[in-house]
Amino acid sequence: MPVRDLKGRQVWQRRTGRESLLHWVMWLIGVAVFAYCWQQISASTTWFFVWDAPRIANDIWTRATPPRWEYITQLGKPIWDTLNIATLGTILALIMAVPIAFLAARNTTPSKYVVRPIALLIIVSTRSINSLIWALLLIAIIGPGVFAGVIAIAIRSIGFCAKLLYEAIEEIDETQVEAITATGASRWQVMAYGIVPQILPAFAGIAVFRWDINIRESTVLGLVGAGGIGLQLSSSLNVLAWPQVSLILLVILAAVIISEWVSAKVRGAII
Amino acid sequence: MSELNELVGRPWKKPPFVKRAWLRWAMVLGFVAYLIAAYLTIEVNWARVYEGLERGKQFILAFANPDFASRSGDIWDGMIESIIMTVASSVVGIVISIPIALGAARNIAPLPVYLICRSIIAVSRALQEIIVAILLVAIFGFGPLAGFLTLSFATIGFLSKLLAEDIESMDRVQAEAIKASGAKWAQWINYGVQPQVMPRLIGLSIYRLDINFRESAILGLVGAGGIGATLNTAFDRYEYDTAAAILLVIIVIVMALEYLSGIIRERVQ
What we know:
With 271 residues, chain A is mainly alpha-helical. Chain A has 11 helices and 2 strands, in the order ββααααααααααα. Chain A has one domain: MetI-like fold, CATH 1.10.3720.10. Chain B has 269 residues and is mainly α. Chain B has a single domain (70-268), classed as MetI-like (MetI-like fold), CATH 1.10.3720.10. Helix content of chain B is 79%, strand content 0%. Chain A: This is Phosphonate ABC transporter, permease protein PhnE.
């Protein structure tokens, strides 16, 4: 225990001298890095606009309230599109994520040194790129519209679903698999009766969880032209129709809260 | 016994996932009906998709031959700006979210403070980064400051919620022992609570750093600074090789961060 002698009195300390010096140096480096970052941000900021911000915020607030309620009649179709993008995207992603998860899990992969790294690479690369970027890319390739949104959400979700699913597969109870194997079942029968029943609850949970996230993401996909309510948001922003913007934001907020509530209920029922 | 006799001689069948037959069929039918309705309302221009396949092929080929050189200045500047935004917003976000997390833990904070902190978390979690970024760009003007504020705001919701849950599930005994020794409130937090939640705080912070970097890549789309603006321009000009280079850099940095966070989390836990 680090104890310091202070004029004959023994004082307890949390760290030894070396440890506290090390801590001090780490804090110094951290603060220096932060100061540098802040200086860079501050250098590329027009401070005049920032000092003016409260007035602008107040101005936008007065323009945006009250929301233009009658505009809601035109939002039915975009909301339906948004729902479709999220749901169909999730389904497509799950269809692709299941085989990848089985290839990536240590206990089911056919080869640890060739197939598993490829599956992990797919998982990481689809996960690390945001759905908006995928949408941007797909719009350049297959043109703007709901379809690009569906594919963008699907690709983005593969990595997420496959990662959680392969972790669930790696955590299964091996004795059940062995019991099925001992009955003389083939490789596929072992999968169907030994592994799948064990991961089914996890699978359902992941599907609903990802669907919830996808609802959030699909509301903004329209900003780059991939369909859904984001299209209305972006066109309202472009013509500075702030009352419409505030209504759309309220609708998006409601959609997000409802989808979160649904997903929490369903997950509560499954698990 | 009669049940067993009835079952003997019949082949075993897999029990269904949903027990009640009518519910099972209603779910299947509803799902199929939804799929048909969704399929009918989505307009897909297959001719356009077919045309695009050629461009898709070009893009995939561009990944094999990314062009880091011709726009290296823009890529470098954008990346540095993204990283700076990520670091600064993570630091500020973490510093602000620690007191909010303490306030949002029911076993530490009184009810009024708890409710205020929980509502801050709820607001921050309900608004997506990109929408917050649009509003902040409108208010503060273009540039990394808007992105920095957006990411800090998003970090607060994420980190405070998870940290508050960890504080709520901490071991009471240790905290009480510190209290029994006559510690003041600050000392109680510092020596009774903080050591218990520190590993989780470090793990979550690094995870959030990772998320912030990924998010900072898209904030440029709405003018909030970072690599997103460069990426958007590259797509608009059909410079697929430059876009592929940017995406590869993002993937590599995210992979490196994930690897690093794995090591650090293993060491602190």
